[in-house]
Amino acid sequence: MAEQRTFDDRDGWIWFDGKLVPWREANIHILTHAMHYASSVFEGQRAYNGEIFKLHEHSQRLHKSANILGFEIPWSVVEINAACREVLKANKLVDAYMRPVAWRGSEQMGVSAQGTKPHMAIAAWEWGKYFDPKLAEKGIRLDIARYRRPAPYTAPVHSKAAGLYMIATLSRQQAESRGYEDALMFDWRGQVAEATGANAFFVRDGELHTAIPDCFLDGITRRTVMDLARNRGVTVVERDIWPDELESFEQMFLTGSAAEVTFVGSAGPWNFEVGDLSRQLAKDYDDTVNGRIANR
Predict the structure, then answer these.
(1) Are 42 and 66 a contacting pair, CB within 8 Å?
(2) Which end of the chain, N or C, is more open, meaning fewer C-beta atoms within 10 Å of its C-beta?
(3) According to the model, what pLDDT value does residue 259 have?
(4) Active site residues
């Protein structure tokens, strides 16, 4: 089948407020609160061999994200899990990317949203690697983002909220226009935070280092990879990381449900090798999500 380029004109089914509807009919009103005031939360998750990896954790986080933004999703975590599986089956997908999203509706216009009704939808589609595999094999190149992750007292930073991705979109667009694949973001203090849609890890002297997620998401893939590293006896250090320290690291990689484990060749002026530990953890992750037992 020819590749379908746009996401509004496809065959298939989307779960929308409790029932499956044809893909092209999954629409919302132009005055939906989420479009004007960013009152929307979402998840990104992958299915491998027909099983959605860590589905329950994703559904729990969706609920938590909505609660942080001040609204309650009418469907339980268990019901969301079942709906995700229903979407996968209805679209006859085995390996897929999935996007559950919840938002405030069009019942009320204005900054206040108390009169709005929560809505939810789940879509799924075939989606290969997040980054070009040829580029990722030798390590992608990261620009340094102009924008920074906000302080936790200025934004709901622990919600996977659509509004928090505006600076990520701008940063990645700028990076791509300059010939990079993505961008490394610092936080409000000037410390290393993450990429635009993935957490960052560094390797030095056989140890794994990563920033403390106090103003950005503690990713589900992030935690998975940390567990895999510890299972191999690798020391994992969560700590503050300053940019002037990056030259001391030997390896760097990104983690995320979309990015999976992606090697980094450079970030701004700092260069990294695609080393053995990065490759081993990438393999362990691939083994884990595909139901194979990773070597210990």
Answers:
(1) no
(2) N
(3) 97
(4) 160
For the 13-125 domain, the top CATH level (class) is alpha beta
φ/ψ of 175, rounded to 5, equals -60, -45
Residue in the structure block whose two tokens are 């897929």: 96
Structure tokens at 116: 């709005």
Please tell me the distance from the alpha carbon of residue 51 to that of residue 55, in angstroms, as a whole number: 9
Strands 140-144 and 182-186, by their bridges, are parallel
Beta strands 199-204 and 118-125 are unpaired
Of 183, 205, 194, 296, the closest CA to residue 251 belongs to 205
Q: What is the pLDDT of residues 213-229, one digit of tens each?
A: 999 999 999 999 999 99
pLDDT value at residue 181: 98
The DSSP symbol for 245 reads G
Q: Which residues contact 192 (CB under 8 A, 6 or more apart)?
A: 184, 186, 200, 211, 241, 242, 243, 246
Which among 240, 141, 262, 136 has a CA at the least distance from the CA of 188? 240
Residue 241 burial (CB < 10 Å; 0-12/13-18/19+)?
A: buried
- At the top level of CATH, the class of 133-289 is alpha beta
The domain locations on the chain are 13-125, 133-289
Overall pTM surpassing 0.70 (yes/no)? yes
